[in-house]
DNA sequence: ATTGTGCATGTTAAT
DNA sequence: TTAACATGCACAATG
């Protein structure tokens, strides 16, 4: 019987009864399941970092703004650390009626591989490793009775090197196993004691894949990394439902992934910022069940992609972050790839071709045939497409959010949005006030239900407010400018930019548009009467022109000149 | 002539 | 320096 163990290097305490259960908590942004001891140490260290370094011993409740005294250990009973970032005071904890839940794990606990290298990806939270060392152990921040003990399935053989994390339990040289080496050995049929150990403790481990979707009565809980300002908000809803099975069963297909390739860790390189779904659609159990057809279904955030001009253009090819494609989409060995059906939040299934191009001894993954989808969702460059998976079943779901109106943003933020770095840090990402999440589906927007939204319940508008309660900038209109890249200005970029500016120029009222249409000056109209209204009828097409010059005769009559345009 | 396809190349960020 | 990726571009397919 496989033995599940604490993922902390140097500990690896066996789970009681060989199963993950209450008392074994998700930590480190959901990337690790730790035993009580290690989990508490982690929490404590994070607290110390927040209180001692960030704000000199003071911190505000992420919900009510109440200032909390440091105390680190002593005050621990009056506030709690949010894995999503920030701190929640006791009053808010009580008022919310929610149990504090452990952060949802990444869909595969130790996948993607880069994340596996470090059970505690503290840098992703803006925390230094130093603060993790040598701290005392305190009470747990996660009530043990809320930990979901349901099993997690390993979708890929872990290649984690736990001994790269010396942070929590000091020197672990004796107790640490380099899993990567061991797995390699294991794969090469060179089994030994260590590989057997790992096979037992990790590779065959069945961990909870529940997403921390803990529902209390009348309560929806969000999922992964919910920004504090959004946590109390009403859930966003997926529309019902589809019927067809998923195009591929990730839980099955991906199980063989490790034998085909070792995906570059999404946490590394550019793609890493697209891997952290800071905003996760919160849906009710009922809705999730409608989508998945499974009462136990959970939704797993995979990754997101900020659409480039190329992605949103007419070519119909969406370049996928390599690491994400390899980690979360079915493995493909041939450039032709394979068809992939992805369901949107409205329930519509989109059929794409998932393939790659050989590129510099590497691969460039693309999703072909996205034009209908892009157009249907009215997406444009700068908007974000998100990919998720429903478990069980592995059904792929795509969502999106429109880019905010970048006119209000400084160039640096515009650029950051475009390249995906704007919300890079899940711990502090909520500070990005200008990034608004909306849905392109009116139905999606207006079918919110559940808990009253403390912010937006009055008018039903889902234009989410920022942390301070100030309204976010309006969603970009149809003339929403492209998120401009300050660099990489090539001919095409300029052309696209001009297109956008042209579009702005074409924002006209109906009257203004009418005003641009002029009858040919040399043609006299026939006047027809339709329902008591006189209409001028011309044999020649109108002239598209714009008033440019006005002059006044001595007699007082006005001459108006038009700049004639080609037609 | 236009659109689609496949690959190459330049830019950028991470290391 | 390297890898990722946005996009350029040549060629093929299609209308």
TrEMBL record:
<dbReference type="Pfam" id="PF02362">
    <property type="entry name" value="B3"/>
</dbReference>
<dbReference type="InterPro" id="IPR003340">
    <property type="entry name" value="B3_DNA-bd"/>
</dbReference>
<feature type="domain" description="TF-B3">
    <location>
        <begin position="303"/>
        <end position="404"/>
    </location>
</feature>
<dbReference type="InterPro" id="IPR057743">
    <property type="entry name" value="Zfn_VAL1-3_N"/>
</dbReference>
<feature type="compositionally biased region" description="Basic residues">
    <location>
        <begin position="484"/>
        <end position="495"/>
    </location>
</feature>
<keyword id="KW-0238">DNA-binding</keyword>
<keyword id="KW-0805">Transcription regulation</keyword>
<dbReference type="GO" id="GO:0006355">
    <property type="term" value="P:regulation of DNA-templated transcription"/>
</dbReference>
<keyword id="KW-0804">Transcription</keyword>
<dbReference type="GO" id="GO:0008270">
    <property type="term" value="F:zinc ion binding"/>
</dbReference>
<keyword id="KW-0863">Zinc-finger</keyword>
<dbReference type="InterPro" id="IPR015300">
    <property type="entry name" value="DNA-bd_pseudobarrel_sf"/>
</dbReference>
<protein>
    <recommendedName>
        <fullName>TF-B3 domain-containing protein</fullName>
    </recommendedName>
</protein>
<keyword id="KW-0862">Zinc</keyword>
<feature type="region of interest" description="Disordered">
    <location>
        <begin position="470"/>
        <end position="498"/>
    </location>
</feature>
<keyword id="KW-0539">Nucleus</keyword>
<dbReference type="Pfam" id="PF25813">
    <property type="entry name" value="zf_VAL1_N"/>
</dbReference>
<dbReference type="GO" id="GO:0003677">
    <property type="term" value="F:DNA binding"/>
</dbReference>
<keyword id="KW-0479">Metal-binding</keyword>
<dbReference type="GO" id="GO:0005634">
    <property type="term" value="C:nucleus"/>
</dbReference>
């Amino acid at each position: 019987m496989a033995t599940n163990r604490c993922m902390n290097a140097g500990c690896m305490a066996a789970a009681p009864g060989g199963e993950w259960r209450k008392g074994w908590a998700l930590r480190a942004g959901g990337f690790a399941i730790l035993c009580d001891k290690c989990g508490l140490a982690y929490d404590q260290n994070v607290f110390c970092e927040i209180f001692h370094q960030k704000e000199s011993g003071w911190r505000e409740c992420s919900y009510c703004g109440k200032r909390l005294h440091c105390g680190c250990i002593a005050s621990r009973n009056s506030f709690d650390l949010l894995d999503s970032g920030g701190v929640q005071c006791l009053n808010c904890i009580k008022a919310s009626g929610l149990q504090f839940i452990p952060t949802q794990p990444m869909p595969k606990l130790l996948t993607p591989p880069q994340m596996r290298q470090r059970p505690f990806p503290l840098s992703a939270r803006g925390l230094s490793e130093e603060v993790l060392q040598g701290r005392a152990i305190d009470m747990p921040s996660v009530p043990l009775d809320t930990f979901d003990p349901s099993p997690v399935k390993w979708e890929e053989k872990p290649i984690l090197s736990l001994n790269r994390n010396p942070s929590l339990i000091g020197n672990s040289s004796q107790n640490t196993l380099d899993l990567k080496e061991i797995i390699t050995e294991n794969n090469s049929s060179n089994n030994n004691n260590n590989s057997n150990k790992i096979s037992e403790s990790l590779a065959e481990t069945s961990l909870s894949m529940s997403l921390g979707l803990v529902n209390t009565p009348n309560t929806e809980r969000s999922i992964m990394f919910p920004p504090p300002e959004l946590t109390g908000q009403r859930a966003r809803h997926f529309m019902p439902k589809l019927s067809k099975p998923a195009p591929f069963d990730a839980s099955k297909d991906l199980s063989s992934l490790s034998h085909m390739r070792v995906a570059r860790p999404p946490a590394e390189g550019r793609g890493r910022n697209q891997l952290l779904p800071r905003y996760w659609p919160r849906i009710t159990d009922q809705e999730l069940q409608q989508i998945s057809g499974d009462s136990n279904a959970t939704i797993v955030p995979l990754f997101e992609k900020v659409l480039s001009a190329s992605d949103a253009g007419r070519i119909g090819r969406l370049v996928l972050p390599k690491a994400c494609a390899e980690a979360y989409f079915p493995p493909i060995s041939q450039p032709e790839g394979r068809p992939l059906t992805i369901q949107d939040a409205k329930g519509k299934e989109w059929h794409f071709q998932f393939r790659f191009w050989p590129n510099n001894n590497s691969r460039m993954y693309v999703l072909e045939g996205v034009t209908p989808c892009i157009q249907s969702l009215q997406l444009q460059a700068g908007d974000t497409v998100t990919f998720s998976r429903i478990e069980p079943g592995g059904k792929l779901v795509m969502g999106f959010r429109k880019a905010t109106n970048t006119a209000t943003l400084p160039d640096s933020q515009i650029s950051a949005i475009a390249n995906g770095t704007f919300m890079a840090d899940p711990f502090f990402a909520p500070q990005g006030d200008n990034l608004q999440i909306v849905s392109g589906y009116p139905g999606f927007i207006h079918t919110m239900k559940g808990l009253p939204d403390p912010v937006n319940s009055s008018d039903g508008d889902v234009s989410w407010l920022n942390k301070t309660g100030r309204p976010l900038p309006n969603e970009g209109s149809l003339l929403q400018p492209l998120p401009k890249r300050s660099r990489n200005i090539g001919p095409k970029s300029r052309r696209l930019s001009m297109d956008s500016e042209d579009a702005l120029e074409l924002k006209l009222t109906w009257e203004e548009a009418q005003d641009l249409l002029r009858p040919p000056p040399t043609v006299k109209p026939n006047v027809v009467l339709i329902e008591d209204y006189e209409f001028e009828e011309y044999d020649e097409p109108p002239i598209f022109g714009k008033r440019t010059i006005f002059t006044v005769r001595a007699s007082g009559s006005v001459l108006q000149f038009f700049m004639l345009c080609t037609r």
